[in-house]
Amino acid sequence: MALALAASFGSLEHWHAQLVAAARDGGTGALQLAFQDDSGMLVNERASVSGTPLLTLDESGHDPLEAAAAVETLLATIDWAAVYSRYQLAVTAASDRLQASAQEAQQAAHLIDVRRAGAYAGAATTLPGARWRDPAAIGTWLQEIPVGAQVVVYCVHGHDVSRAAALRLRAAGIKARFLQGGLEGWAASGHALQPKDAA
User: Fold this and answer.
1) Contact 182, 100 (CB under 8 A)
2) Of 35, 80, 86, 149, which shows the fewest CB atoms inside 10 Å?
3) Which helix (H) or strand (E) holds 54?
4) Where do the CATH 3.40.250.10 domains begin and end in the chain?
């Protein structure tokens, strides 16, 4: 969840600050962390109507002036594995239609490696012609890609990292898809890899 929160809010600290601010503002309904299918982003909102709720913080009965302490108490009890499981299901449901085959990846104008920074740093290979971009910082590099460009993104297995990146790019007007099976699926089907330092 740390990567997804950083990609949507800029950092875990920014997400936390926005959550506390929303709790201080009061409002009606429980405060929720929700996944927006159309943008691939996470948002803090009251009683989600625009997304899939992943986490609900019911701070009712807490004084808005004590919101920070109430949020900290509630966050300490969260089952993050369950939240991440709900996130993965939401991302998969929203992105299944965006799968790209290996052939489609080879024909894309832009092939972008969005493996987590740690996975990329520890890897020796990449797909031919791909360039790596940090998925946690997608908001800082997506403007480098022309609107309407054909893009295929990939991660290790073609799960939530590349799927969420494709959704986020599509929300910015980029024709993005994710590589089915990711880098592992590509390699398992016999397609060539190149040394990372040659990219």
Assistant:
1) no
2) 80
3) strand 52-57
4) 97-198
Give strand pairing partners of 31.
Answer: 46, 57
Give me the average pLDDT of each 10-residue run along the chain (199 residues). Answer: 94 90 77 92 82 82 69 86 96 96 95 98 96 96 95 97 97 97 97 87
Give the residue from 172, 176, 146, 157 showing the smallest Cα distance to 119: 157
Q: What is the pLDDT of residue 30?
A: 79
Closest CA to 30 of 72, 74, 73, 68: 74
User: What confidence score (pLDDT) does residue 56 get?
Assistant: 86
Distance, in Å, from the CA atom of 122 to the CA atom of 104, rounded to the nearest integer, reads: 27
Q: Return the CATH architecture of domain 97-198.
A: 3-Layer(aba) Sandwich (3.40)
**Residue 84 pLDDT:** 97
- Show the tokens assigned to 100: 């790209």
Q: Is the backbone of residue 136 left (phi > 0), alpha (psi -120 to 50) or beta?
A: alpha
CATH 3.55.40.20 domain position(s) in the chain: 2-78
Please state, as a whole number, how many other Cβ atoms lie within 10 Å of the Cβ of residue 133. Answer: 21
- Architecture of the CATH domain 2-78: 3-Layer(bab) Sandwich (3.55)
